[in-house]
Amino acid sequence: MRARRRAFALWLTACHTWRPVQLAPTPGFQEKERVRVVRSNGSRIELASPSIVDDSLVGQGRRPDTRVAIPMTEVRRVETRQLSTMRTVLLVAGVAVAVYLAVGAYAASHMELDIPLSLDRVP
Question: CA neighbours within 13 Å on the CB side: how many for 36?
Fold first, then answer.
């Protein structure tokens, strides 16, 4: 059951990608969405319900009761998660090919062939 959940989670994430957004003059994200912040030292952190307060980017950390404030001088980039059309198309095509091959293999393994055992020609 756990493996199914992980596979489903991977399947869902395969259709999305992180894309950079602008912060000035107005933030390119909505306060209700989730963002990923790339800091100047290269570390990354995800924030829920982000907003810009004074000179900091503020939001909730992984736990809902955790408030995180990052000074804008430490922010290299802010990204939002968006649907990736190409990844979605490739995923759907890959699943379709896998199903087609699995059905073909199943049908071939259950097919009865009427092949004569003798190599003599029938008159």
Answer: 12
